[in-house]
Design brief:
Elements (H helix, E strand, L loop, with lengths): L8 E3 L1 H5 L15 H14 L4 E9 L4 E8 L7 E10 L6 E9 L5 E3 L5 E3 L4 H29 L7 H13 L8 H9 L11 H11 L5 H14 L12
Antiparallel strand pairs: 1-2, 2-3, 3-4, 4-5, 5-6, 5-7
């Protein structure tokens, strides 16, 4: 699974259920991490999707929760659909859901589209309805992401120089640290997994996601956003190609 926890630790649902939820204020209504997960689980089952596996993590002494659910609906044997989940008790970010795909061979997670549920002041009463609408919207996000990835698999790079130029542009956009320009190129040229040996845009995307595994969750989030627009994973024109 594609959840990376360079900060914090991996935990079970039972451990998440034990995390205390801060008291509400007039302007802020925090939701228990476990309630977010339960709401997503219920709605996923209502859509007749099956959760194949799931992984969760806590950071900052339980103040931040991250999760990934891998579900059985997919248009390709090369990956499976995933729902990314996040929630915070310190107001650092809103409740969020996003669409992703987990590439089978290397467990990289590519996020596309946008955070479809993004409510900082969500009451418990509102949560189920909001999650229901968000999961329905994720269907379009999945289709866009899968169509783009299929296209990336048949788009070949013309030369190593083109790959180098794209990697540098990605560093300029903040997708990777400048110190990782060479590691990304090396991974592209000699990938850890032979399935990415062809010099395609798909293989180059894998080189990026393989390299950023070492980043902190916050840095990974920034990297994914830059790669999403850079490779056109949101359905728009890929910004890294001029």
């Amino acid at each position: 699974m594609g959840l990376m926890m360079c900060e914090g630790k991996f935990v079970t649902r039972d451990e998440i259920a034990k995390v205390p939820t801060p008291a509400c204020t007039e302007s802020w209504h925090p939701v228990a991490h476990s309630e977010v997960i339960d709401a997503v689980t219920d709605v996923v089952k209502m859509h007749d999707w099956q959760i194949l596996d799931e992984r969760y993590g806590l950071a900052r002494k339980g103040q931040k929760m991250f999760g990934v659910m891998r579900i059985n609906r997919s248009s390709s044997p090369d990956w499976s659909r995933c729902i990314g989940i996040r929630n915070s008790h310190d107001q650092s970010f809103a409740v969020g859901l996003t669409a992703g795909i987990s590439v089978m061979v290397c467990s990289n997670l590519a996020f596309g589209g946008s955070m479809v549920l993004k409510r900082r002041h969500t009451s418990r009463i509102e949560l189920s309805a909001l999650v229901d609408a968000a999961v329905a919207e994720l269907e379009n996000e999945f289709l866009t992401l899968e169509n783009v990835c299929e296209d990336l698999k048949i788009r070949y790079l013309s030369s190593d120089d083109e790959a180098r130029a794209i990697i540098v542009r990605a560093a300029e956009r903040g997708a990777i640290n400048s110190s990782d320009i060479v590691p990304v190129f090396r991974e592209y040229k000699k990938p850890c997994h032979e399935e990415f040996a062809e010099p395609t845009r798909w293989s180059l995307l894998n080189a990026f996601t393989e390299t950023i595994k070492k980043y902190t969750p916050g840095r990974v989030d920034n990297s994914y956003r830059a790669l999403t627009t850079g490779f056109g994973l949101d359905g728009n024109r890929a910004a890294l190609w001029t």
